[in-house]
């Protein structure tokens, strides 16, 4: 029976090639999008999952509550926290381990002591207990020896890179930042879906810092992980935590310190805190994508339902005859579902091919290795099967019920009215479909508009053609700064050079308490930027009052920005000149006020900023280039750099690129929206085309009658188009409030944003109506211009 | 009023010409009631379609009211439909989604007749054909004869000078058929409307005043009916 059904299904689909094509096209594209979204979500949800007892692993993170209601979070903890917690929380936690991220120069010497390899790598100083918390796979050695200083553990990839094969690595020596380490173990490569990308692990005891006992200093590079004892609830730690905070945070600071225990499976999704891999995917975005995927498949299914019920009439005779021959309704439903399933399976196959084609683009967009291998991840196969069944039922069940429900007598006489199968329902579905489409169009328009706005927003400084070159900063290299700078200035093509801590706009910010013109600390922190006297010239920053700082190696004059004065209620910038500002024990007068510039991404507002010279804090050389000869200039810069700092590894970055990276998330979102809006528009409009084709065929006779009654082609086209235009118009009205809610919420995430005007909404209406008109007219014109007699001749 | 000269019509099928009409030449004057008769496949309907400009002849010329309409632009043809020609079909061809009233109104809308004028004309037609009570019914709620009455009322609404009817009683019982034919006769005699009908029935043909006998696409006989 099933085989026969399949055969009939195939013939029927072949007979109605046009509708079948529309269905398959819509469904396969919808399914491909769905599959892509699914494998992306699967990848994102797989982060940090592969560890034993992962539900007992937490990261200790920090928070500060300020008196003005602001809250600040950090993924890092003060360095003394780990040993203190190990001691104070021992009843609750099995293990605690500190991990410190660092970047340094790896140097491998061959047997003769000659340098064989020198590269800059990220490394982690790590306590051996870390491996007691996370069960990594050890290829050789173990972590016990990591308790002694001077040892190193490598990942397979690194060990292969350094020593040819990881099997030779054990016992070899590696230089990291001029210190020597012995390889005591090799672990298997850590998969990409991990928030701690371990490659090079050094004994924590080898980590030197002046902050080891300072509770007041928190850096995002110092993390700490705990593993609870079995059967301990994380809530049980709250009371001891309060005592812990009181015990250790004795210094007065503007923000009230606190700590939180962040579950391991939250690390990849929580954008309040960062992580070492730098990859965060907020759950909200994952859900957003899932919703879009769901809507895509609904839209495609609606096409199917509409076309199937519309075609139902032409199937009525077959249904009648089958019923007379003794077919039960259930058997008919089964037959029609088989037909649907055939289409769905063909679409699924095609959709998988499309997925494979789109995958590289997707990987590129997200910068991750998303896999579409059903062998590696059987859940993908399960999803494909689920998708097939879900779509078959969603799209096939209703039409099957309608068609199989025909009265046999009427059906045989072909007297089933053309409106069978719910003309009303079809209209509702089309409105629903287009409401989704229009919402996506509006969303896309607003996102693109906001991105353009962000791009064109004046930053208050000029980031073009500025290269940021790393500056190794220790007591030795510091001595060479002056020569380095003057050498750079001689290079043709270099226009300005400024040594500084960070460029005007940076993700790297640090706040400090300060006092202005009094001994009392201000109730907010100031963002300190250390830079030399050429900072303003290099970045084209403007002074609104006073003068630039003069050349100095240590802080003896300050520049402030307008926001700082505004926050201090100083209205006239001139007033601030000469006032004494004290920060971290360093008192100096304010000599100039800088016009405000955007020092963060446009999600955030401008910080109060302080600029002062301090050679000990210069980590970058900002080089303003003549844009005509950047390439050759940078080559010369690199040569000079390597001559000056032979022990380090050169790295450069262009400020423009860095700023662009702030909006990577939005760019990805914008691209996604463009693509999915395109897909959904395509699906909706081929569905519309199918429906108008059907309506036109169905009304051929009416069109012919009207023609002999004297209707002109234009009048007929108008008549056929009318209901579609009205439906799309209603869909617009439905979509507007939805889209408004959605985009205004999204825009709220930007401190600098466009005013939401009516234009994206009007434009979306115009676009949807125009495309509808074109799609529909294309078909209805053909119907209206068709030869009258063909429709009237035969009875 | 209608002047056909050497009208030929054939369908080419794989190079073979299937002639439907051959060298048809005839003149139909204002006020005539002509019946076209002949066996199935003789070309009666095709001839009527050509007269109604629903089909174009392959050769020959056709003058309608003194104007050469052999191949006419769509705009002009629609103009003729709106003002001069009314069609009545064997299968009535009413629009299923519209009521009796709306069906009759349709040609007036296309003719852009004002609403007061429309209402009075429709009222007049409904009254004349005794279908006032049925005006809000849909076609499938009427008997065949009633549907054909509506079809004729619709054809008359635009006040055409000629009515083309393709087997108007073909689907009807004899009593209803008689009613329709006497209606045609009355329209022809009292209002001077030219009527051309295709029919199988000798009896129906007797209502008219002229019969064109067609066989194999050729006019065999052109006789006047003596009343």
From TrEMBL, chain A:
<dbReference type="GO" id="GO:0005886">
    <property type="term" value="C:plasma membrane"/>
</dbReference>
<keyword id="KW-0472">Membrane</keyword>
<feature type="transmembrane region" description="Helical">
    <location>
        <begin position="379"/>
        <end position="407"/>
    </location>
</feature>
<dbReference type="Pfam" id="PF02687">
    <property type="entry name" value="FtsX"/>
</dbReference>
<feature type="domain" description="ABC3 transporter permease C-terminal">
    <location>
        <begin position="675"/>
        <end position="785"/>
    </location>
</feature>
<dbReference type="InterPro" id="IPR025857">
    <property type="entry name" value="MacB_PCD"/>
</dbReference>
<feature type="transmembrane region" description="Helical">
    <location>
        <begin position="428"/>
        <end position="448"/>
    </location>
</feature>
<dbReference type="InterPro" id="IPR003838">
    <property type="entry name" value="ABC3_permease_C"/>
</dbReference>
<feature type="transmembrane region" description="Helical">
    <location>
        <begin position="758"/>
        <end position="778"/>
    </location>
</feature>
<protein>
    <submittedName>
        <fullName>ABC transporter permease</fullName>
    </submittedName>
</protein>
<dbReference type="InterPro" id="IPR050250">
    <property type="entry name" value="Macrolide_Exporter_MacB"/>
</dbReference>
<keyword id="KW-0812">Transmembrane</keyword>
<feature type="domain" description="MacB-like periplasmic core">
    <location>
        <begin position="20"/>
        <end position="241"/>
    </location>
</feature>
<feature type="transmembrane region" description="Helical">
    <location>
        <begin position="21"/>
        <end position="41"/>
    </location>
</feature>
<feature type="domain" description="ABC3 transporter permease C-terminal">
    <location>
        <begin position="291"/>
        <end position="408"/>
    </location>
</feature>
<feature type="transmembrane region" description="Helical">
    <location>
        <begin position="286"/>
        <end position="308"/>
    </location>
</feature>
<feature type="domain" description="MacB-like periplasmic core">
    <location>
        <begin position="435"/>
        <end position="626"/>
    </location>
</feature>
<dbReference type="GO" id="GO:0022857">
    <property type="term" value="F:transmembrane transporter activity"/>
</dbReference>
<dbReference type="Pfam" id="PF12704">
    <property type="entry name" value="MacB_PCD"/>
</dbReference>
<keyword id="KW-1133">Transmembrane helix</keyword>
<feature type="transmembrane region" description="Helical">
    <location>
        <begin position="716"/>
        <end position="738"/>
    </location>
</feature>
<feature type="transmembrane region" description="Helical">
    <location>
        <begin position="332"/>
        <end position="359"/>
    </location>
</feature>
UniProtKB/TrEMBL annotation, chain B:
<keyword id="KW-0067">ATP-binding</keyword>
<keyword id="KW-0813">Transport</keyword>
<keyword id="KW-0547">Nucleotide-binding</keyword>
<dbReference type="InterPro" id="IPR017871">
    <property type="entry name" value="ABC_transporter-like_CS"/>
</dbReference>
<protein>
    <submittedName>
        <fullName>Phosphonate ABC transporter ATP-binding protein</fullName>
    </submittedName>
</protein>
<dbReference type="GO" id="GO:0016887">
    <property type="term" value="F:ATP hydrolysis activity"/>
</dbReference>
<dbReference type="GO" id="GO:0098796">
    <property type="term" value="C:membrane protein complex"/>
</dbReference>
<dbReference type="InterPro" id="IPR017911">
    <property type="entry name" value="MacB-like_ATP-bd"/>
</dbReference>
<comment type="similarity">
    <text>Belongs to the ABC transporter superfamily. Macrolide exporter (TC 3.A.1.122) family.</text>
</comment>
<dbReference type="GO" id="GO:0005524">
    <property type="term" value="F:ATP binding"/>
</dbReference>
<dbReference type="Pfam" id="PF00005">
    <property type="entry name" value="ABC_tran"/>
</dbReference>
<dbReference type="InterPro" id="IPR003593">
    <property type="entry name" value="AAA+_ATPase"/>
</dbReference>
<keyword id="KW-1278">Translocase</keyword>
<dbReference type="InterPro" id="IPR003439">
    <property type="entry name" value="ABC_transporter-like_ATP-bd"/>
</dbReference>
<dbReference type="GO" id="GO:0022857">
    <property type="term" value="F:transmembrane transporter activity"/>
</dbReference>
<feature type="domain" description="ABC transporter">
    <location>
        <begin position="2"/>
        <end position="227"/>
    </location>
</feature>
<dbReference type="InterPro" id="IPR027417">
    <property type="entry name" value="P-loop_NTPase"/>
</dbReference>
